[in-house]
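Record 1 of the preview.
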Amino acid sequence: MPVVSPAQVEQYHRDGYFILESVIPGPALDALREECMRLVDDFDRDMEARGIKSQGISHYKKRYFISNRSAASPIMTEFLFSDLMAEICRATLGETAYLFNEQYVVKAADTDSKFAWHQDSGYVGHYHRAYLSCWCALDDMSVENGTVYILPYARDGRNSSDEIIDHSVDDRSNDKVGYKGADPGDPAIVPAGSIVVFSSRTFHRSGPNMTDNYRRCYLAQYSAEPIMNRDGTELWGRAEPILKRGERMQPPA
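->
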């Protein structure tokens, strides 16, 4: 049986997202968690050595965005190019898909670890074809530990589901902010091993982690075509094929 149902594909196009519960196999989930904590420890040591408390939108001992480390990690690479991720790409993007970006997003036990309303496309900064974000829960997610909140297309106030809103930058957190309305969005209360699948045009946010434990997710992002920089002279992110003519590709050597 396919992991992604026709009803979920319909919801993706109508609302901008759907949720797959408990689909990441246990061994893969355990391995991704171990890689996550290894990278968090490395990130802390690097910031300590440099004497800094923030790096971009990452903040020491509060929240971490650790991007594009899979080239040195067979564990991450195997997951990113797995049958599971290929099926999700095929159902949402079509017969051709590329790995565009991947990152761990980790919140420590800190009340200041929330993340503002934004579209992932808002971080690219120029028009591009919408890409796919797969928010993989490495822990049981709750309101208390700062899960992701999704704002369905019909409630976000845009003129078109393809519209990219101009985002402002929060001076304190360095977050980009694209929605300032009153709608709180819908929280993804899901068990570890679930994937929240959404478009790069979909507004989402997350709350602070009010628990005593880390809240960890792994974000895998894929595009239907290579995404270029504003003037089209070079890639904006990555463009490693995962699907060609519907067939899953092996990761780059």
